Amino acid sequence: MSKEYDVVVIGAGPAGYVAAIRCAQLGLKTFCVDRFKGKDGKQALGGTCLNIGCIPSKALLDSTKHYHHMNHEYASHGISFDDAKIDVPTMIGRKDRIVKQLTGGIAQLFKANKVEAAFGSGKLLKDNVVEITTEEETYTVKGKHVILASGSVPISIPNVEIDNEHILDNAGGLDVNAVPEKLGVIGAGVIGLELGSVWNRLGSEVTVFEAMDTFLGACDQGMAKMAHREFKKQGLDIHLSTFVKSAEIKDGKVEVVSEKNGEKTTTVFDKLLVAVGRRAETEGLLSDDCGVKLTDRGQIEVDDQCRTSVPNVWGIGDAVRGPMLAHKGSEEGVAVAARITGGHGHVDFNTIPWVIYTEPEIAWVGKTEEQLKEAGVDYKVGSFPFAANGRALAMNSTTGMVKILADAETDELLGAHILHAHASDLLQEVVVAMEFKGCAEDLASIVHGHPTLSEAVFEAAMNVDKKAIHRAN
Ligand code: FAD
Ligand code: NAD
Question: Model-level pTM?
Fold first, then answer.
């Protein structure tokens, strides 16, 4: 006989663990199974995000930012030193400790909220029964509701075989123990730029191959062009319209054959990072007769409420449609828990913030200018450069600008795009304003502390109606 729960969650990434905690908080008897093994071979909750994604990549970005600033920024403050050194194993060790602290924290939160956690692989059978396979045994549990939160895995490409020593995937790219002299990166997407920046800052010669002819196609193109110039200045050698055909390990090096306009080039690297996107993980998740349908892209098919094709079986996070972002998955988890208990859950994809944690960071919410033009929306633009912001000048951090897009007639905020070292934190006030259906004038009427970087957002909002104080309108 299967043990019975109100909710069984498969996957303990930011979608699954948040869903499990919220379900338990709402009084539901909750079970959560995950099969991820940490570096010590033991269960590590938190999924891709905490173990091999958001958190470890930000830890490395932070360490290398300090190193980069020592070498390139501090002199202007009058701070000098003889010889900045980087000890990569110490840097990686710091990252590993942060990961362990956070994943251990999820285990404690599960205990505190009385979520029953299991280590193993979960497979949905029919009638909401989930089969759990561990190294020792196989057993079943049954949920009145089942939440599928199995996340995503890196996409692989033909003729490029990952060994995570020379040719690295997302996880391998976070665990390099010495600075590679030459690093190749396939994909100028979020991971390629973030991890490419990590190693570039430590002195690697980084070459990025990008198949598309547009740099960061999902970004507002004005911002993407500015960011591209900054990355070039930093030494990231980005080749657009360049398709990698193959990579081969020869004498401890990686030989990459790429093609641009029909012309083939061979380049040799010490390491190659493959960052060409991720796909929904459904391996071993669904029995043939469980009834859950997949889309033609291999994602779990769900409606706008995260319902799958089977009653009381839900799908959330990277495994379903929508942006592959930790906070999107978490919000879906919270929304599903609310729906299960008869409440209302709502995730507005239009107000999900996006951030690329390079330096400068690129952060945005809502629509780009390109999207508004394509949709035929009449809009107004307000902008403000950080070069005219007192705090940015005091910080010697003047690269970038804020751009705010508002409806030409109603003034409703339609989008915001920020390029700056602290763009991620600055964006959030616009996210709040958009969530409350605010307009540019609302942002322009709120008192902003002085001197703060947030005054650039304030001034950009004023510039929407050409009333900025500290720039010519
Ligand atoms: P996951 O985090 O992938 O978790 C799914 C879990 O389910 C995993 O632990 C997996 O082992 C487990 N699982 C799968 N199948 C089964 C099964 N059958 N049985 C048991 N367990 C199973 N997003 C951001 O928002 N901000 C960032 O800064 C950011 N940085 C990133 C950096 C990198 C290098 C990478 C790779 C990703 C990054 N992401 C970032 C994306 C983010 O990690 C994902 O969007 C997020 O982890 C998705 O959450 P999830 O819970 O849906 O899936
Ligand atoms: P991505 O989709 O951001 O970028 C992949 C890039 O690889 C694309 O630009 C694509 O055109 C290119 N590409 C694909 N095949 C290629 C080939 N053969 N040769 C050259 N270029 C090729 O994917 P990613 O960077 O792997 O990230 C995966 C997901 O993880 C993203 O969807 C993102 O949402 C998430 N993520 C988010 C963050 C963040 O929020 N800061 C950080 C890292 C990852």
Answer: 0.97
